[in-house]
Amino acid sequence: MLHSALINVMVKAARNAGRGLKRDLGEIEHLQVSLKGPANFVSLADKRAEEVLYKDLAKARPGYGFIGEEGGNREGADKSHIWIVDPLDGTTNFLHGIPQFAISIGLQREGVIIAGVIYNPANDELYIAERGKGAFLNDQRLRVAGRRQLNECVIACGLPHIGRGDHELALREMAALQSKVAGFRRFGAASLDMAFVAAGRLDGYWERNLQPWDMAAGQIMVREAGGTVSCVDGASDPLKTGHVICGNEYIHGELVKIIKGLGK
Ligand code: IPD
Ligand code: CA
Ligand code: CA
Ligand code: CA
Fold it and tell me: How many A from CA of 77 to the centre of ligand 1?
């Protein structure tokens, strides 16, 4: 499968940073793990991966802006393009040796995400999406699942960790849903939750209080796989509100009906 030069740049950077993460996995005692806030871990692995990504992306596209979770916000001369990067999505999983984590790279042009790459180096799953060109997992074209009945669906959510978000609300949301779905999951890496929706592994996913780097690439992945992504209100831009909900258009609609009303 031939991808554009832009996607090749993103894939190369992701694979390069992924090699570092794979090396660091299981070496936790050497990773200087610290807390940014309650239960909000960061390690040398996160920081090194961000440096690799910044270097590779800046070299290939000098002038593009860069927003990275670990503080690497760098303005570029080209004001219309911005990389939105999570160097290690799923740090808690990573630090526990759970192989559900990823590098997530989104590219925004004039405020619109035009490309996304999500890479899990632990199992070498590489997700790619480019605006108008579809979404792929290791060169297989992706399509969201087609189920229309919630009681046949596997749905994932994200829960706020200590010190973040509204825990009571998260419990109310899960209580409202768990009796209506075939299966309920919480994997712990937002970018992969969205990639799983794009791949039809999950029928839907929602989470509140995310950051743009958690979902920039995931958003285009789901859309290019034919799915619907919005804020939990069903309309606004999740990159602005931080609250995301996605699935095929029917399941997205069903989830919005249930989740939207609870957040007041
Ligand atoms: C986290 C993961 C997790 C989600 C958190 C995010 P990080 O990202 O995506 O699934 O529930 O809200 O902060 O900190 O591991 O990059
Ligand atoms: Ca983090
Ligand atoms: Ca993240
Ligand atoms: Ca991260």
Answer: 30
Domain endpoint, select from 120, 141, 162:
141
- For residues 229 and 124, membership in a common domain is answered with no
The secondary structure of 93-134 as a DSSP string is HHHTT-S--EEEEEEEETTEEEEEEEEETTTTEEEEEETTTE
Question: Is residue 117 domain-shared with residue 166, that is, in the same domain?
Answer: no
Distance 38 CA to ligand 3 centre (A): 15
- The reply to whether 113 and 42 lie within a common domain is yes
Provide the number of structural domains found in the chain. Answer: 2
**Residues that constitute the known binding site for Mg(2+):** 69, 86, 88-89, 214
Closest CA to 154 of 145, 164, 163: 145
Residues around the ion ligand 2 (C-beta < 5 A): 91
Total-model pTM? 0.96
Listed residues 123, 141, 159: the one ending a domain: 141
Burial call 146-178: b when 16+ CB within 10 Å, e when fewer? ebeebeebbbbbbeebeeebeeeebeebeeebe
Q: Is the CB of 155 under 6 A from ligand 1?
A: no
ipTM over 0.95: yes
More confident site: 223 or 27: 223
Q: Radius of gyration of the chain from Cα atoms?
A: 17
